[in-house]
# Entry
Amino acid sequence: MAVKGLGEYDDGNIFARILRGELPAKRVYEDHWALAFHDIAPQAPVHVLIIPKGRFISLADFAARGSEAEIAGFWRAVGKVAHDLQLEAPGYRILANMGEDAGQEVPHFHVHLFGGRPLGRMLSKPA
Ligand code: AMP
# Structure
């Protein structure tokens, strides 16, 4: 079932294919709920993507349809990846793009984790 306004989940999206093992990824963490792998075009010394294993397009979709176990498991994995990459002390940023204004390219909900250098302001100026 789709969430109103979001359309149907596309099983052909890149992250779905990575989850099925059809495309390679530099995996850094995996458990029952989540997979983390290095972004193919890193924008910081550490740039990891963390995705839930379920078929969710966006945070709204995940929040509406994800089970409590899926949601808790996913966010625990985000925290664990940041911890295991030893980013707590220097600091890091998580970011998730949703929809057109944010420039979401891959329609499978994901969190970017950036670290390894001072990250500057939160948002770039509008184009
Ligand atoms: P977003 O704009 O938030 O949808 O981000 C999608 C991200 O996926 C971008 O940072 C891309 O560099 C990254 N990406 C696209 N294809 C791959 C891939 N095959 N493996 C790893 N990261 C990818």
Q: What stands out?
A: The pocket of adenosine monophosphate is lined by residues 14, 23, 25, 39-41, 49, 97, 103-106 (CB under 6 Å).
